[in-house]
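Onboarding guide, step 5: your first structure request.
Type a short instruction followed by the sequence, for example:

Predict the 3D structure of this protein.
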Amino acid sequence: MMATATVSEPPSPPPVGPTDLPVTPVSSGDSLPIDWSAVPTAAAPITPKSEATTCECDLTAGECDPNCCCDGDCDATDRLAFTGCLPSAPPANPKHCTSDAQIAKINLGSSADVEQEGGLLCVSVDNNEAASYFPATAPVTSESVFDRVVSALRFYPFDRLLPASIDAAEAADAQAEAAAAAALDTTTVRFYKVDDPVAVVFVDTLSLGSMSLPSSLVSGECTDFTPGLFMENRASECARALPADLAARCDLEPSLNALTYVEGQYFLKYPGVDPFTSAGSGNGTTGPIDMGAVVVPTLTDLQCLDPADGQVKQCTVDVPSSPVYNAATHACDNVVQSVKYQLNYGERAGGNGNGQTGVGLLNVTLSVVITSVSAEPANGLFGQAFEAVFFEGTNSASNTFGRSGNPGYVVGKPLLAGNKAVNPDDDQQSAIFLNIDSSSWLTLVGSSPSGECRQSTERVAVTYGEDTLSGCVMDLSFRDLDSDESCADLQAEVIKVLTGNANLNARYIGIYGNSDYEDFFQWVEILNADLPAAAAVPAEATPGSCANLVTGITVEVLTANIGSIANPQSKVIGARFVYNVETWQFTCGGPYCHNDELTQAFEIYSAVSFVDASESPQNYVPRAPDVIPRLPSDFFYPWVG
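The system replies with structure tokens like these:
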């Protein structure tokens, strides 16, 4: 029987102090269940060969990864949709070949099995592990060790952080995918394959198309021409441009209406079935649409986001209404803030009427968050989020977990982060509370489309190998910086912005991209996690200023290559927080300086920097063998008979 850790609901946390980050309790319902009988009490020995990979395309625990033929979670149904096999791992011992003419022939009389490839003599297996694998690296557990590792590096870019670059090719890729979706021939494809656009029929116009999963252009604005691709889990965020006359067009914009996503489209079970004929299973029709050929999406969760405090709560209604303009608040209500699709697929037979079997859609469910948008938002933009996840059969997100590598991290994947859990029956056993939702791991400060902190509920995920600098601005008046109380309140608000209430509270980072949350020794503690001890106070003899303000946090991560040099894997060996402490002073001139309506912008930032601390493989050359000369049999005669 599996024992799971239970976490009692703690009392309300005390106010944020000068030395502690606010900690949000993690309930067992939010985290992966811990089987304490499987939790080790000692770390497994690390060797160069033990950290080599065997199936690096297996990135989802408990669920099949598309085209990953070495994934043990893939069954025969999944493989029906495969279009090929992703590479699992190159050989750990690549062959070293040279011309046999260059090999000196010694030890005559000995025999050896020699395999020649194209006239070359090849070393098939190299027993010198020191030259074939990266050295094993132990986790960094103290700042002194962290500094020692850093001091030995040739290149240390910590002070050279730049904003993350934007790949202009993303927009071109999105347009190319949209063109491919538009050119989809729905008369030739009968079953879904990996990366096929998910086919839909639009209810209002009775036209065929592909599922839209809006994504961000280089400018950050939403484009609706990015198709959802079969078995490809994808999440995106973008800024939606609001109409200039929001009061008149609030209820006319399809992109703002939740019913566009809930009722506006049906999903084709097979991407080649004509939904306007009896090509489906013949379960009846609604008007000209054959309901046996389509899957009608079901709304399973409707939540409401309060724009004032950023809190998301269950709505009081089960079905969303069309957006409506609220003259009293000058806002457009019932506007879509996020949409999450869950598409379940499975093996189907006879979808094309010829008795063949293949993969088709079983059901589609949606989770929607709606909110209210002001008639005059900054720059006429507001943020939207979209996500699509695929599961086989009746599986769901509750029993699958997306890895960030196997075993080494994949660049661009979220950095695994969680908190320590102790077995209530044995304090010698520790594991990690790891939330299923990767958006609750380490994140950086986000900003509203206008760049303001106070209007933003968005966070920027910390992804492996990508140095990122993200920030926002707070507009403050003279009085916001002019007393003990105002400085203390300001520091608490800044900390809330920096930590996101919960998303920077993780104290442990996964060493590997597939770190086991039940193996505490596969995680490394973040050093220097507590805030500086000095509290924010008004600067002496300087009105309108606050000193000792923590205004920035940098997450500094040490990484190293492991495993075979033919296929290096990346792991984390240490991490720490570095804080930026400064004085904010309100600067203005003239008789209106103390006017509360006059504000000044102050910047808050958080950043992450990845530093490569890999050690080079050791090129060990063994001692030359002793050469015994071949002499005539009677060379020592008559001394030896």
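Each response can be followed by summary notes, for example: The chain has a mean pLDDT of 76.
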